[in-house]
Amino acid sequence: MTTYVLIPGMCHGAWCFDGLAAALRKEGHRVLALTLTGVAERAHLLPGGANLATHITDVLAAIDAAAGGDDDLVLVGHSYGGMVITGVADRIPNRTDSLVFLDAVVPHDGEACWDIVNDEERQWYVRVDDTGFGVPPMPFFDDRATSHPLATVLQPLRLQGDLTRFRQRIFVYALDWPGESPLQPSYDRVRDDPNWVTHELGGKHNLMRDNPDDLLRVLLDI
To answer: What does the pLDDT look like over 78-121, one tens digit per residue?
Structure first.
């Protein structure tokens, strides 16, 4: 039995993993899908005050509470969630087995999400909501999506080590973007690295919706 920790991207809650989580549980695995502070059904918590460190702390606390002393965690991050799982793995390396970046940013020490994406993505970040502190959801997002705390994409991530400490590093790239993918720079970092496993799927960014069977196979192969 593996414990999978599922972290959503910007503006989304744990519900974006409902189908994938159910399929993993059906295979006998434990799943911890999380909604981060200041987002979705937790949007009322620290509105505008959450940063990347808050979200890393969210996940560490949830792992301690729900996973007990389990080791061999598989951390799965979608989009912005790549920042979070990298920070979490760096703080509990002895409990982390593998990391899966679902069309997600892959940061290096000292980088913020802002630093890794393209200009079009940055323009979305600074098109803030009426509070001045939140990145509004895109019109095509799920109706449950909310604004996302701007500070989370601006705060640099400080790391003590690199990702080579973990048994597997997997990147799943979504091919069906309407233009240039903001995740292309991250994919370019790892696609030719023999220490990474990469997959290209013909779905849109929301791979959990477009390619659920493919994702399930990727996760079970770990």
So the answer is: 999 999 999 999 999 999 999 999 999 999 999 999 999 999 99
Number of domains in the chain: 1
What pLDDT, in 10s, does the model give residues 148-183? 999 999 999 999 999 999 999 999 999 999 899 999
What does pTM read for this prediction?
0.97
CB atoms within 10 A of CB 134: 22
Residue 9's nearest CA partner among 99, 113, 92, 115 is: 113
Domain that holds residue 118: 3-221
* Three-state SS at 9: coil
Q: Which residues are catalytic?
A: 79
> CATH number of the domain that 203 lies in?
3.40.50.1820
Angle at 206 between CA 4 and CA 38, to 5 degrees: 70
Residue pair 173/200 in contact by the 8 Å Cβ criterion: yes
Asked whether 96 and 162 are in contact (CB, 8 A), the reply is no
